[in-house]
Amino acid sequence: MQKEQGELSALTLPTSAEETSEGHRARTVGVGRAHAKAIVLGEHAVVYGAPAIALPVPQLSVTATAGWSANSPDDPGDVSLTMTGSASRPVATQASDGLRRLTAEFRAIMGVADDLHLDVVLDSAIPAGRGLGSSAACSRAVVFALADLFDREVTPSMAFDLVQTAENVVHGRASGVDALTVGASAPLLFQAGEAQELPIGCDGSFIIADSGDVGRTKDAVELLREGFRRRPGAQEEFVRRATELTEGARHALADGRPEELGARLTEYHELLREAGLSTDRIDAMVAAALAAGSLGAKITGGGMGGCMIALARTEQADDVTRRLHEAGAVQTWVVPLKGFADDER
């Protein structure tokens, strides 16, 4: 990631371990936070240029704590990464390489000395491998923990680029939707690398349910691509239909038409299911949510495991949640739309 020449020239390498650049003094501890996200509509199609609607999930958060110490001469520029919390082991497996690349990029851009050893602790409640943006949230939390530690200002674009540095290591070419939404305070419409906050005219709640199965995003992506290769015109039809459903959902969300919004969710689930990206357990959870009175339900994220998402009226949320657990959900989280609408006012 490149930085403006004028900004770089204002930074100098530290003359001591305590002073990380001219005019900046490291604190003892830095703290950064981020949260989960869920895709409402648009997964898979978004990488082909279609729009996607992404939902912040503030109920699931990650906190990063960063410190530094003088490094040994034979261990320059090292970083120790410790994972705690309910998602510790899978997050460590997925994110460690990306976070090491991120910290190296942060050092280079911000002028942090190579002879400082960084100690980063991540406490995450976001289950990994479920399409909830765990790796992007961890990366964003680390960015702001390091910025707090070394008294640096991080612009939104800088934060995005740094998170993408880690995401591209973890996932290959990342679309950017996770990197944006794990720091967002409202639902976003994402397309072609650009994002905008969505107006909220609907009441009700999104209910996210974890199937307990780790999603296989890379396998899902390859399965979809193989289907496109076998059937001429299949990719164009998939993207056209996905765009149509996502745009319909966007307007229903803004205009206060929850029944239409829910219907678009269910139709998108059928689109992904027909492509082979759902599972028997996810399908059972979708059916249970609909039977309990949900306005719509679908798989969310890469597919072949992970989570599903349902839209329910406020008074039905408890019943839908109970039925989802009966159908095999191991965890559920309720995200009220009213909170986002209040934020806009």
UniProtKB/TrEMBL annotation:
Ranges of residues in domain GHMP kinase C-terminal: 250-328
Segments of this protein annotated with the region Disordered: 1-29
Classification via InterPro entries: GHMP_kinase_C_dom, GHMP_kinase_C_sf, GHMP_kinase_N_dom, GHMP_knse_ATP-bd_CS, Mev_gal_kin, Ribosomal_Su5_D2-typ_SF, Ribsml_uS5_D2-typ_fold_subgr
EC number of this enzyme: 2.7.1.36
Keyword annotations from UniProtKB, A to Z: ATP-binding, Cytoplasm, Kinase, Lipid biosynthesis, Lipid metabolism, Magnesium, Nucleotide-binding, Transferase
A Pfam family hit: GHMP_kinases_N
Domain of life, per lineage: Bacteria
GHMP kinase N-terminal domain segment(s): 116-179
Annotated metabolic or biological route of this protein: Isoprenoid biosynthesis; isopentenyl diphosphate biosynthesis via mevalonate pathway; isopentenyl diphosphate from (R)-mevalonate: step 1/3
Family indicated by similarity: Belongs to the GHMP kinase family. Mevalonate kinase subfamily.
This protein's name: mevalonate kinase
Originating organism: Streptomyces luteireticuli
